Amino acid sequence: MGTRRRYDREFKLEVLRLVEGGKRAAEVARDLGLHVNLIYYWRKQLAEDPEYTFPGQGKLKPPDEQLRRLQRELADVKEERDILKKALAIFSKRPR
Question: Which CATH code of 1.10.287, 1.25.40, 1.10.10, 2.20.25 fits the domain covering 1-58?
Answer without folding.
Answer: 1.10.10
